[in-house]
Amino acid sequence: MQQINIIDAPKHVDEEVKIGVWLTDKRSSGKIAFLQLRDGTAFFQGVVVKNNVDETVFEQAKKLHQETSFYVTGTIHQDDRSHFGYEIEVSDIEIVGQSEDFPISPKEHGIEFLLDHRHLWLRSRRPYAIMRIRDQVIRSTYDFFHQKGFIKMDPPILTGTAPEGTTELFETNYFDTPAYLSQSGQLYEEAGALAYDRVYSFGPTFRAEKSKTRRHLTEFWMIEPEMAFMHQEESLAIQEQYIAYLVQKVLDNCQYELKLLDRDPEVLKPYTQTPYPRISYDEAIKMCQEGGIDIQWGDDFGAPDETYISDQFDKPVFILNYPKTIKPFYMKSHPTRDDVYICADLLAPEGYGEIIGGSEREVDYDYLKKNMEAQGLNLDDYGWYLDLRKYGSVPHAGFGLGLERVLTWICKLDHLRETIPFPRMINRLRP
Ligand code: 4AD
Ligand code: MG
């Protein structure tokens, strides 16, 4: 008999098959038992009818505990009442691994309890759906950048320098000198763009964020494309195409997962249409002020401000040209204004905040050097970066997208912590 996965059940209707499963829940009466089953690929129901099976099979089914693993044999039927659409009528059960007192029962648990048991919580429906959407977004990222002619170039994780400011660094001891876990691969990707035209990185990023917010992890995954001979407008076009592509691929391939998460696909559809609106930082400040928010030109947007701005649009929105005082040294100066950079953040709709930060890069050697000195950066550390402006400097641009931020929005979650298998936050390093 053929052993299959639940996900392939639709191809085996009316056939007898064998599946390795775990029990998630069960309900039984004197004559029938309903077993909720999962095998990692999907969830569905097993039905054991007392009169149709051996006495011992029915007795065994009634005694199964949550998360006991077993082989189930039976016939696949269509079942239009369930999310999945199919079920198995059980003829035999063969226990593999017992499980008693599984800590996560089908009742509600507090979030800290669930996070303490993350290694087991991952088996539940919500994490299942989120991790599969995460995988979809990861695969679609590789596909998108490959189609656009990028190569993936991996920057180091252990670094001697800090591109995004020095306050949020994790320091570690590197043979008696300090090293830092990477906050961003960008400076290395710039070297890559000047070597290979279009590159991107996709890897873990570390920030010692002291703030406890729903949008910050201390370890998150970032995608950082960098493109040579490119100005900001073309970079923005790639950014919006990339987001639209990700949403489209989730809609194409993750309908079951979206259903499990109660995420209405109709809400996601408009996000597949580009272009996305663009407003300037100046306009965004004015918009906030007119909405009664106490904010001045020069302030950075807090989470409520970003939510207010994104609520004025029904698609992601770019905010262009931020004040120099609140952005890093490597951004390109505006040609006609000396108070702002050529940069943009992309805000997700529905109040999910910044999902992309990017800019055109400063190309002028002297200007960049002065800017770095003014910001107190040690030029011994950054000599290699200045070399990029010394030998064939070209206009180039890039951006960074936070994977967990995008997933939180696509899945419509309250907090980033559910989008990564084992979240790292200020108060959480285990499991
Ligand atoms: O805006 P950020 O800090 O930009 C950079 O790091 C640039 N070097 C990127 C580039 O131009 N190559 O971070 C980029 C994105 C943010 O828009 C956000 O989506 C995500 O990374 N991000 C975080 N995600 C989770 N937890 C955190 N603590 C994050 N900090 C930033
Ligand atoms: Mg940013």
From TrEMBL:
GO terms for molecular function: asparagine-tRNA ligase activity; ATP binding; catalytic activity, acting on a protein; nucleic acid binding; transferase activity. It catalyses: tRNA(Asn) + L-asparagine + ATP = L-asparaginyl-tRNA(Asn) + AMP + diphosphate + H(+). Keywords: Aminoacyl-tRNA synthetase, ATP-binding, Cytoplasm, Ligase, Nucleotide-binding, Protein biosynthesis. Its EC number is 6.1.1.22. GO terms for cellular component: cytoplasm. It comes from the Bacteria. Its main location: cytoplasm. Residues 131-431 form the Aminoacyl-transfer RNA synthetases class-II family profile domain. It holds the Pfam family tRNA-synt_2. One of its GO terms (biological process) is asparaginyl-tRNA aminoacylation. It is found in: Cytoplasm. The keyword Ribonucleoprotein does not apply. Homodimer. Belongs to the class-II aminoacyl-tRNA synthetase family. NCBIfam families: asnS, PRK03932.1. This is Asparagine--tRNA ligase. The gene is asnS.
